[in-house]
Every structure is written in structure tokens, then in C-alpha cells.
Amino acid sequence: MSYGGSRIAARAAKPGITFDVVLGLTFTVLGVTTYATALRHGTPTAPSAVTTMTGVVFPGALAVLLLGDRVRSGWWRLSGVGLLVAGASVTVLIRRQTDAEKRAKSPSKR
Questions:
Q1: DSSP track, 60-99
Q2: Exposed, middle or buried by CB within 10 Å (0-12, 13-18, 19+), for 15?
Q3: DSSP string spanning 2-64?
């Protein structure tokens, strides 16, 4: 969600070095650090899926709720279906990776 935070901070930023700019840079550094840590501890599938999903969904939701962005007329239903499909896909990827990691760590039953 830190990448999402940096996107929202960039959207709200004024020219020059302001609190919004510093906040955006802080979120970016936090995002890179946590993503790199996740990559060190496993395969890139789950961290990439979660980073992409949260980096799109949360800033989009905040933009609609707080910044006055709008969804094109007649597209709410399709947007909802897309979010559900994306969320289900991320869940499947994470579960498969978790299952694969458990199988790799368990002793062989031979």
C-alpha cells in the first residue's frame, strides 16, 4: 500500500518541496524496502501480485472517495467485476505459493 500512498501524495502535491512531496518519497522508499525484503524471502509471484493490486485499488478508491475522481457513467458494474476478479486472482496466487512453500519445507514421504 506504500506505493499507493506515494501515488496519492504525488496527486495532492504542490510545486516545490512540500509535506506532500516528502510524504510521497517516504512512501516510495518504504515500498521499495518492503518489496525487496519480500523478494528475499520467497518467489516474486505473491509480492508482485499484492503490490500491483494494492498499488491500483487503494489509490483509485481514495481518488474516488476523497479527491473527486469519477468512474465513467455505466462502468461501475464492470469496475466491480474487475476488482473481484483481480482480488480472487491475487488470492489464488498467494495460496498456491504458500502451498508450494509448505510442500518444499515438509520432509519427503518416500
A1: HHHHHHHS---PPTT-HHHHHHHHHHHHHHHHHHHHHHHH
A2: exposed
A3: HHHHHHHHHHHPPSSS-HHHHHHHHHHHHHHHHHHHHHHTS-SHHHHHHHHHHHHHHHHHHHH
- Give pLDDT < 50 ranges for the chain: none
Q: What is the DSSP letter of 41?
A: T
User: What is the residue type of 88?
Assistant: A
Contact yes or no for 26/32 (Cβ under 8 A): no
Cell of 44: 516474486
The residues near 77 (Cβ < 8 Å, ≥ 6 apart) are: none
> In terms of pTM, does the model score above 0.70?
no
DSSP character for 106?
Answer: S
